[in-house]
Every structure is written in C-alpha cells, then in structure tokens.
Amino acid sequence: MIEVSNISKTFGEKKVLDTISTHFYKGKTNLIIGQSGSGKTVFMKCCIGLMEPDEGEISFDNRPFSSLSEKAKRHIRKEMGVLFQGGALFDSLNVEQNVMFPLNMFTNMSNEEKLDRVNFCLKRVQLENVNKLYPSEISGGMMKRVAIARAISNSPSYLFCDEPNSGLDPKTAEVIDHLISEITDEYQMTTVINTHDMNSVLQIGQHIVFLYRGKLWWTGDKHSILEAQNTELKEFVFATELTRRLKVNPK
Fold it and tell me: What strand order describes the sheet that includes 2-11?
C-alpha cells in the first residue's frame, strides 16, 4: 500500500498540490482523475520520485520515502514499474532489448535468465515472436503492451501508469485496461493510473481519487462515481464522457 500524507507542491506563486492525503491499495487499480491543470501529473511525479513534495510524505508499505537514505530509496525504485504516456520505448532497441532494459539496470541475472523473463512477460501481454522487431515495426497497441511487459519485467510491487490509453482507439484501449487490471490482481501490485478516460474509470476504477485545483476533492469507486453528489466531479464526468462520445461518433 502507498500512503500519501499531506503533500504540497508549489511552483513560484502557484500551489499545484495542496495538502493531499490518500491511500493507494495493494491488489487494486487506483485511478487519479481530474481536468487539465488539476495537479494529477505533478501528483504522480511526486509518487514515483521524479519530484519531491515541498511538504508531507509518501510511504511505500510503511517506508517513508523522503526520510530514507539514497540506498534505501534506490531499493524502492527497483520495486517500481512505470508505464509512461505513449509507451516511451527506445526506438534504437528492439522489443526484446526494451523489455530487458530494467533487468540490465537493476538485476544480476544471467543473460539466459533475463531472456526467459523477457519471453515470459511478452507472453503474459499476449505478444510472442516479436522479440527482434523494432517499435517502428509494430502498432500503437502492441507498443503499449511491450511497454507493460517492460514495466512488469522486474516483478514490481508498485505499478504506475500515465495515461495508458492515450492515442489508442476505444477497442484497443479496453484491451489495455483489462490487461492492466488482470496483471494487478494476478501479481497483487499496488497499481496507480493517471487517466482522463471515463471508460477506464467505469471499467476498472476500484479506487478513484479526483483532484480539483490541486486539492483532493472526492474519493470512491466505479460504482459510486455516477451517484456522487459533488458538483465539480459531476461536471468533470459529464464533460469527459461527452467528449469521448463525440470522438467515437463525430456525426
């Protein structure tokens, strides 16, 4: 479990995060939602250690990250898998080399052990016999699945996904959603997903955090979000769903 306690982040005179406290639960898909400028991207960057909050603490299974030594922080970073927006595969590396990248960085496995792990992860995301292909040779949906294989290659305890459905058609996005959900349950990871996709929210949102102007405005799940009596949340849900429908049915 990840515990967030009163974190704040300010850039210049703008307070982007304002004393946010929440939990992200093990074995569940935890979603961060909010309109552009709500602070959700900065929030996730603080969670994965790309930014330090000005105040507050983020703890990973009772380990307060900011208070740890650099060696201990590195150990927690080794327990993280990150799925970046767009996949962020290395264009100069083939699929096998991309998935193997965290294993080269964080483990002492033999080449044979690393290759076995790569093939296992690719099979888990329903991709086989693509090892020697390059990102330019596969589809956007396949790239996302390769990125997921890379994110889980080091058997992470915590999986962070930044807009995993960005740029995908609705059918492929649904495949990615269910894959992330299945992997989360199968490996009992603490999965945190930054998204604006209401279909994802309603399909896999087991724990949802809604940010509004840098503040925690609502928490709940996919069953309660449509019934929530929260004006800002209802406006966000309606506007996001309307935009999605217009993209799917432009006429």
Answer: 14-24, 2-11, 55-60, 63-64
